[in-house]
Amino acid sequence: MIATGRSSLFASFKTGIADRYISALLVGILGFAKRHHSARSGVPEYRDPFGDGYPGPFLTLTVEWAGRTTDLLALLDTGADLSQIPAVAAQAMQLEQVDVMDTTTSHNETAERPVYVANLRFEGFSFPATWVIGDEYPIALIGRDVLNEIIARFDGPGRSLDLHRPNAPSAASS
Question: Distance between CA 136 and CA 85 in Å, rounded?
Fold first, then answer.
């Protein structure tokens, strides 16, 4: 089974979860996700899209297939085996379902999820014809299937992240 890796931080929101989900849907699915960079050489900053005081490595993920494109709010999720996008976004883009996969969440809940193929782009990286799981979670998760292709350095105290390809200079060191 595939662990879609929902972070316990997001699974444990106590109040206002519907408001946060609706906000994430509006920010991500409707294409209002914006790139946030620090003044330091264009290094992506952590964001707090839910406004709950827990910033993290969120960024804008561009999903494209067959001439249709959308920008989604996405979390770099090292606990997710595979990348996933909101099923509603996949349906709105009319992505073709290519498979169904059993998935397991971080809470050991299992479910069958649709699998789509799409081109993914973020922070200057491109991942053509990538399998993505369609899920009810309102934001995209960039999983290890993609993250294993890049080097990522997470600076929690500095609230920034550095992403680069192997053997390429990092933005933080330039």
Answer: 8
